[in-house]
Amino acid sequence: MPSSYGIAIDPAHGQGPGCFMGVDVGGTFTDLVFCSADGELHCLKIPSTPSAPGSSTLVGVDEISAIAGSTSLRDIHHTHSNTLALNTLIERSGARLGMLVTEGFRDIFEIQRLAIPDPMRYDSRRPLPIIPRMSIREIPERLDSSGEVVRPLDADSVRAAAADLTAIGVQIIVICFLHSFRNPGHELAAKELLLRDYPGLVVECSSEIWPQAREFERATLTAINAYVRPRIESYVGELERGLRARGVMSSARGSRSNGGMELLSSMARRPAAALFSGPAAGVAGAAAAALDAGWKYADLMTLDVGGTSADIGVVRAGKPVLSSEEHIADFPILIPTVAVSAIGAGGGSIIWIDGTGSLKVGPRSVGSDPGPACYGDNPDALPALTDAFLLAGFLSQDHKLGDRLTLSLDSAIRALKRVGDRIGLSPGEVADGAIRITIAMMTAEATATLARRGVDAPEFRMVAYGGAGPLLAALLAEEIYIDTVLIPPIPGALSALGAARADIEGDFMRPIYRPLQDLRPGEIRDRYDELATQMSDWLSDEAIALPLVGSSARFFLEMRYDGQGFDVPVSVDQEAIEKEDKTELARLFHAAHQLEFGHSSQTARIWVKEMRSHVVGHVGERRWQRIVGSLESAPSRTRKIRLRGREWDVAVMSRGNLSEGQVVTGPVIVEQMDTTTLVPDGWTADIGAGGAMILRRGAAA
Amino acid sequence: MSRAEVHDAISVEIFANLFRAVVDEMTWRVRRSAHSTFIKETQDFGTGLVTPQGEQFAVPDNTGGISLIGIPIRPLVDAFAQWKEGDVAITNDPYATRGMVMHLSDMFLLRPIFVDGRLLCFAWAFLHCSDVGGSVPGSIDNENREVFQEGLRLPPVRLYREGVLDETIVRIIASNCRSPDLNWGDISAIVSSLEVAEKRVQRLAERYGAAAIAGAMDATLQRTEALTLAAFQTIPQGSFEFTEYIEDDFVSGTPIRFQLELTVGSDGRCVLDFTGSDPQVAAAINLPTGSQPHHPMLSVALMDYAITRSPGLHVNAGIVRCIRLVLPERSVVNAGYPASCGGRVIGVMRIHDLTLGALSRVIPGHVPAAGASQLAVTTISVPRPDGSRRVVSANAVVGGSGGGCGLDGIAGTDFPAAALKSVPAEILESEAPVRIHRFALRPDSEGAGLHRGGFGIEYAFEITEPDSTVVCRGKDRHSFAAWGVAGGKAAVPGFSAVVRRDGTRIDNGKKAVFRPDLGDIMVVAGGGGGGFGSPFARSPEAVCEDVGNGLISPERARDVYGVVTDQRGTLDEEATVALRRRHSQKAGWPGFDFGEGRCKWERDWGAAYAAICDWVRDLAPGIRRSMQEKAYAAMRMQLAGPVSREVAMEFLEAMSAPKGSHPSGSAERAGPSQDRMEEVDA
Questions:
Q1: Segments in chain A below pLDDT 50
Q2: Rounded to an integer, what distance in angstroms lies between the CA atom of residue B636 and that of residue B613?
Q3: Which residues of A touch B37 (CB under 8 A)?
Q4: According to the model, what pLDDT value does residue B17 have?
Q5: Which CATH entry fits the domain spanning A504-618: 3.40.50, 3.40.1130, 3.30.1490, 3.40.30?
Q6: Residues B45 and B160 occupy one common structural domain
Q7: Is the complex ipTM more than 0.90?
Q8: pTM to 2 decimals?
């Protein structure tokens, strides 16, 4: 198997470029990390500017210029992740689209997959279609499941539909015909007809976006892509112009939902592959942080606790787990995405009492305005989890949270008391109870997330980040029997750092969808050759002006027993592909199934659904010598915390005071600029290689 | 509140989440490795943790089986004098489990969880097997008259004894179904989920102590019960009646009547009294509920109402504790051996509408109007080259849900079936010789209203290989449409047809089994959902949007909604105001619209049928339905509607009068007369 796919490898750049920058544009803040040529890592937090989404990045770049001088930015490697695509979808502020579908399937977006999100609730409904029925036209045409033409494409209907749709103001048309994932002929022919008559139209074919079986899901992905694309293109244009004006001459890269990166200009054309770029960069950053600490091929659970949610991801053998079954805003996303599940348990989650007098946390959040009660002095403010952290002593009112001003303990107590008075609990008891409930909720979510991947938590380690992740990590770890937790050096900017350190990563697939015994000779080989060519072309395009230190590719056959609900990816090497030995492929599948589920069925029929490949263009390690600013030291103090129903006097240390090799024994609190870490009783913490803090259970001397 | 209770206020939420973790993990085990489409796409399986008394205290809230949440597990718990560690019990027998198993397709499995040698609780799971033998592929045909036609019946037995698999049982199951590999794959998945539950609960017990777990089981049930009562207290106290029908029983043309009196107490406790419902029928629609005082299948509407009203509710058997049932013996809602019950989902769906009707008498609009309420499950059996046959699940057709709760109904699906997913056309066509021509909404099929019902749905498909059998069971509401309320209109009913290659169209009615010729296109359609509130009160913009979307015709917009618009949905405001002023409607309260089918039938035969129902009540239970069928058929033949109660009673008296040596009304002699009826039917 070729190792580099024809891409020039420059050994001189084996250590990667010295200077790099990573940006994560979130809803409230934009995080930037910048590593200077002499290895100084700077972190910046800039308020986001939703109305001009590129602006906050440019403000950050100006600040970096001021620190490092603009010449250092000229050839910098920089990668950008953003939530703009996702927000455009959630806010429904995308483009007006039209669509062509196979006759008989106009209701593809009305019916979706029939089910509603919450079948036991009378007020649950499917998400509103991205393309209304009035803008969808049926076209007489039909392929069968092997891609053969059953009914030829009716060109007149395509022209009539185009006239019709443009007349109602549609400028972008999506095409999704049945079985186009096997044979894109009709979609491409329709596209050509449309563009011939209406050269100004933008036309997107489902077979070009992601050629996988399942018409609703593929149509959805194509529609989402077309829907968010104009906004993303204008953001990218604005950003690139702004960067050039600031002397940044190197090509911008964009993070992808698979945890990798590509050229930002490529991302702009296919933003559906970047919907989840922020969380994906976070999980990828967590995987990289584990590697920095010397954890090679680690199995990890990641925990990111922010303002509104707790996000849980899974890393196996050092790589974020990708899934094609993720949902975003209730829509399925077929394209491989770093699997992250979220529950409404973040710093802003509301603490309340249900009808039985029982304490509850979330899923509603106070939001960033007004925020938790302790952010202000509103006497009617609702108590949120952050208020509980403050009262329980997990956070200190003197300690700045991000760029917030100091927190008001009085406001927190007042809000918690109002809730506690209703059920006869003191504010402290409410705070302690709310934290324990939050841990139990996270336990349920973490268990389900890991179970979904077929893995068992005790074999895993955890990486915790985000504002409150390190605060709760050890408590959650205890509950799910994880013994080791890693807190990265800059837990508050892990997505930005993950973006900066990403490799070029691409996913490709070819449908097969045939019982194993029915495969035609050469079929697998042909699919492999097609994938290899496509990957190689893509990688050489993406690697422009970016010397790679190597590349690698893995090929999988997605297989399942007849009728099964999940595919098992069976890793196949070139030899197995060349030989096309069905008995051997069946053996590989049985073994993979046995490994994954503990049983296999030698007599059941096997289906081969598709061949997939994942290609990585390695850019080399991006390291830094020193982190500027975040690890300031301060004298140690003690404070009272409330934990497990009792009060403890704990030492409060500054992260900057801890040196490599030093071990502290819990209970202890470790503060740093962007987060606070709780090391409970029964745990120790030490600073490992690369500056990460590692919490270990039961290791107390 | 005492200190102990106060701390319960925190620990109950903690444990409820920890229990959720266990059942979610069970669910993922099953979902990941199960083999059949039923589990893969329709999610017809369930998992849970069960108290030693047989109550589910934790169930996942994201699988399909709401009608199995709170189902009594006690009968299976009691089936064995002694449970040992490592035992796994299995059964699919309704008549050995007193209302636990509700049809043969559901395999129930139970595994005891011991901590320090003492039984702490049980892990439970069920799955809908895609086939358990019987008269048709997929095992369910509404026309089955006895349980013996419905497949293998396995009384409670130990599949595993102290961890050792009983191969005999595996062989018995394999020999009695059409897809043994699929079934065994699914059962293995279930067994592995029970194992993981045991491990997880034992780990929880290690961490928190068995006593704390036991206490938390009860506390979480009590808390759900309390929240459910609070939700039910939003319904005014009182008793509210309603009547629903299945328009015919699939075998005799006789309707099935469901009668309900819902009583809401001051403490929120509800009683569902089904007295007056029809005797059990000789068709696979019966609900063998085993006279259980609490049962989810008869409680779906109240359960959904409680869940909708209680954000953050942990769903478990605590909900059905608040709903007490009064069930007449040997009735369609409490059937006895050997009633067939394979297609009981139609009964469940109709009882859902029945309860919505009673609720709509007191809180109209706070629950949906009636839905399309059919679950037409399509199964295809195709020959393999070696002569064996392959069974493929090929989509279910439901129909729209009713409008209400401030929202329009759902297009194409109805609440009791709303967890069910369609199979993508591209997947189905790749796996089976099927070509789907249409999976589409039916314009103008909705029950009009302020909040209109959801649109009905139409599924048209063709089998591309010869010698195939198509089974489409559970079709319903072809005549008695979903009703509307508070001035809302009834919907358009469903239908089923076959379009032959030469273009002729035949009505396929509600017959389940069809053996198509090549080129036949089968069409199965579900009706719309009923509307809530006057359609004249609906916002003109909303009507125009539906018109623009091609879902409501401009004519219907004008005639039914009083909105004047063109094909594109452009509103003519002036004309609309004028038209609406002219037609200003005043709906009677509670303003039910039962639709043409039911209204006409009730006008002609409603009083007569009620008389028949009263008449058979005095007969021996075993012959009530056959006499009901016989009397109804005779009346339909000999009388012309409308028939008053008096005329009907005279007719029945004449029927009961001794005729020579064959007094047909006598219980003792009923057997032969029943046999004769069957001959007539056949």
A1: 1-17, 404, 700-701
A2: 15
A3: 563
A4: 92
A5: 3.30.1490
A6: yes
A7: yes
A8: 0.92
